[in-house]
Design a protein that fits this description.
The structure is a single chain. This protein is of the alpha/beta class and 173 residues long. The chain has a domain of 121 residues: Barnase, Chain D, CATH 3.30.370.10. Strands 1-4-3-2 form a 4-stranded parallel β-sheet, sandwiched between helices. Helix 6 crosses helix 7. It is globular, with a radius of gyration of 17 Å.
Amino acid sequence: MAVFSELDWRRFDTWAIAQNNGVATIKKEDLQSCRAWLEKNHYRLSTVDFGDGIGRALCTLAKLVGWYEQFGYELSPKTRNLDTLRDGFEFLTNGEQGYALELLNTEIGYREDRTWFLGLLRISSEYSLYEIAQGRRFFVYLVLDGNSRLIGIEYESKAVPYSVGPYSSMRWV
């Protein structure tokens, strides 16, 4: 099942997912309009605010993904292990409803721990790709000032893969 019936580049979600690999930005002054657009276009919206630092934001993320329900323990804001976060990074989506994750006060999170914050963007982008492969829409967007130093920061690089991938038992059927 296709995620989009057509690639309409005037749509925020097409631009965020197809053009920007599941990571987008909006200006602070467009926040209310963006939220209204998401609601009108059947998106479930969750917000993570970095205003009180990464620890508090990580606790919010843990609740959103149902960390305790998935693993039987609370995700500690002190560990900040990105591989652990990746393991539980799942949002309830379906083919009729997309999911948008809104990130507020991201400059604070970036300033506190650049590696972790950029890792969150990598995980979000990767998850967006997984959702597309299953016919669902997911993306994350950062709410920024127009002159934010985060604009243009690289969070991921790609390389030509090893042939056949990491699986030695690849079957050519």
